Amino acid sequence: MATVDTAAQGVQAFGVYVHWPFCLSKCPYCDFNSHVRHVAVDEARFLRAFVTEIETTAKRAPGRTVSSIFLGGGTPSLMQPQTVGTILEAIGKHWEVAPDVEVTLEANPSSVGATRFAGYRAAGVNRVSLGVQSLDDAALKALGRLHNAREALEAVAIARSTFDRFSFDLIYARPGQTPATWKPELDRALKEAGEHLSLYQLTIEPDTPFHTLHASGKLVIPDEDTARDLYDVTQEVCARAGLPAYEISNHARPGAECRHNLVYWRTHEYAGIGPGAHGRLDIEGQRHATATERRPEAWVMRVEEDGHGVVTDEVLLRQERADEFLLMGLRLAEGVDLNRYIAIAGKPLDPAQVKTLSELGFIETDASGRLRVTPAGFPVLDAVVADLAA
Ligand SMILES: C[S@@+](CC[C@H](N)C(=O)[O-])C[C@H]1O[C@@H](n2cnc3c(N)ncnc32)[C@H](O)[C@@H]1O
Ligand code: SF4
Q1: What is the 328 CA–ligand 1 centroid distance (Å)?
Q2: What is the per-residue pLDDT for 7?
Q3: Quick one: pLDDT at residue 211?
Q4: Res. 334: pLDDT tops 60
Q5: 3-class secondary-structure state, position 326
Q6: For 176-230, what is each residue's pLDDT tens digit?
């Protein structure tokens, strides 16, 4: 896996996440906070609530310089470009915005058009991330997607011609998939890719239709060995194409990593705006973990009443911060700075655990004091983190 130049990101990274919670249809594998409405969504009312929550959050966490903005969902490409423009203006009104700010919008190929994308660009978006999921029509159908492969590739072409920076997502380790069928699909994807690709292994999430089908034996996903082979093929093929993994599911040309996601994985500060958005804010020396009301209409009403939709605001204990630092940081190829771990936790990692996991070949430490997961350790990352965390 490739490493990322930490200095280039600056230590003061501050991200703003804005959640648009609606989709045209609900994909059967997805447990994101996304909802389908059969009546028109009152976009103007949501916009007013976004602007209000931005203002309130900026009053709580003033003086930051925003280094990245991420409009995620749901399907943010269902928003009108003017709506996006007004959200970005509100962020710029209440916080400083870095001149090289990264502004990403997630888009679904079913709601992409050249005019709409040009509108987002004019509004200030400079990067898009498209949910392509597969380049195989039968697989797209099985995933419940509304678009086919041709439409997905048309959306990629529009993204490429509109934005300097774009990425797309694929889901692999799908039912029936083998390295022999995945490799040509991935090769094709790499031909279409720009500087960044997100490649997620299909996860069976609780309370989804896929979970029910899986539990009843009607949906069979690749076994552990096949999933491991698929993962290995993914790493090899992408690295050879110049897009090594910088995070367990994210691949980029060196320097083209998604700066916003790095904010999460490096446990920097970020504000969460919109229904079900999470935030991490440092206020008076304490790290606050915030979460807003998940139900879209209930969130709007809360914001209209209280100026914000925050329903959870917990000060993280020292050890909780340290565990989060490991959980997030070890997903990255660059790993974590052990001195920063000590500064957060107030103590070093358990040397016996570090020794055992190093001897097993799952982690390594270097002379500069960084600890990282090895290629052998990444497929068992959850277990490695569980062993290291307190
Ligand atoms: C918010 S969606 C991206 C934008 C848009 N909603 C779409 O689907 O086109 C985030 C991404 O998470 C991934 N994802 C969602 N649920 C998943 C699951 N159960 N397993 C693996 N990947 C998943 C998909 O690749 C999806 O594109
Ligand atoms: S379009 Fe994206 S966010 Fe919406 S249900 Fe499908 S995967 Fe989830």
Answers
A1: 19
A2: 39
A3: 98
A4: yes
A5: helix
A6: 999 999 999 999 999 999 999 999 999 999 999 999 999 999 999 999 999 999 9
**Mean pLDDT of the chain, nearest integer:** 95
Burial (Cβ within 10 Å: 0-12, 13-18, ≥19) of residue 167: buried
How would DSSP label each residue in 164-223? Answer: SEEEEEEEES-TT--HHHHHHHHHHHHHH--SEEEEEEP---TTSHHHHHHHTTSS----
The 10s digit of each residue's pLDDT in 250-302 is 999 999 999 999 999 999 999 999 999 999 999 999 999 999 999 999 999 99
Query: 390 alpha carbon to ligand 2 midpoint, in Å?
Result: 34
What's the CA gap between 133 and 200, in Å, rounded?
9
pLDDT value at position 241?
97
Coil, strand, or helix at residue 72?
A: strand
- DSSP assignment string, 249-310: TEEE-TT-S-HHHHHHHTT-EEEEESTT-EEEEEETTEEEEEEE-SSHHHHHHHHHHHS--E
Nearest CA to ligand 1 atom 1: 73
Q: Which residues pair with 290 in a beta bridge?
A: 279, 313
Pocket of ligand 1 from Cβ distances under 6 Å: 23, 29-30, 32, 72-73, 75, 106, 108, 131, 133, 169, 171, 200, 202-203, 205
Q: Angle 307-313-319 (CA atoms, 0-180°, nearest 5)? A: 155
Please give the pLDDT value at position 12: 79
Pocket-forming residues, ligand 2, beta carbon under 6 Å: 23, 26-27, 30, 32, 34, 73-75, 108, 131
Omega before 74 within 30 of 0, i.e. cis: yes
How is residue 284 written in tokens? 């008076």
Given a contact cutoff of 8 angstroms between Cβ atoms, the answer to whether 156 and 196 are in contact is: no
| Predicted structure pTM score | 0.96
Query: Any idea which residue has 């059967």 for tokens?
Result: 28
70 closest CA partner among 128, 9, 4: 128
CA distance 308 to 53: 5
List, for residues 255-266, the tens digit of each pLDDT value. 999 999 999 999
Predicted confidence at residue 11, as pLDDT, reads: 57
Between the CA of 256 and the centroid of ligand 2 the distance, in Å, is 25
Three-state secondary structure call for residue 71: strand
Of 200, 112, 98, 100, the closest CA to residue 160 belongs to 112
- Predicted local distance difference test score (pLDDT) of residue 4: 42
| Amino acid in the structure at residue 141 | K
